[in-house]
Amino acid sequence: MAREHPPYQFLDGEGEPWGLDVEVARLVFSRLGREVAFVAGDWGDTLAGLRLGKMDCVTGVEIYRNHGRGNFSFTSPYYNRKAVIFVHQGDPDIFEAADLVSKVVAGDRSSYVEQYLYLRGLLKSIRIVKTKGIDQSMQLLAEGRVVAVIAPMAVGLLLAERHGVSVRIMDVGDPGSPVGFAVEKGDEDLRLRLEEALEALKREGALKSVLARWGALSSSSSRRLPAPCLAGPVSGPAD
Fold it and tell me: What is the pTM of this model?
């Protein structure tokens, strides 16, 4: 799990795993009659750990962004995340995506926003810097070292508040990226057991209760989405 990706997965004030994805994972493994131990780290390290067999699965993985990597298999999604662009509230120069040309931007790679920029011929003219996570990206925005941050809307709003940054959202129309569990490619037994547990929690209403508590019902997995166009470059970890 990511240590700084609120409200989805993060360490609370006492260093304990918490968040929407953490709560769903606990429900799923309780349903399977198994204990769950969370390993917190940077998102790229988390996915690498799964690829190297250091963990059994990863919760809260954006499926379409990671599907092409070939190392993982996925459950069906249990909710969707919407990516947007955050800029300073008082920035006098940036009001649309084209205003980011020749500027430095931090945050999510391989997201709907990056594909949007690519398809409009803007991506090559924008410098998107890689960070350890959205928390660091928002810190760079607070320090004025980048002009914008690409992030899931719920994550960006919480981290902007944490860093004391007044932000304005630029919405480029992301319909939402489906999120589910990832397992190592070939571990079909675990993937199917996770799938069965998720479906049971959906039928019983337990999953709906968790999504409602974290404000994610409007982006739940009941709205199945077509895969986005991936004609452009796909690189970097999914933050």
Answer: 0.81
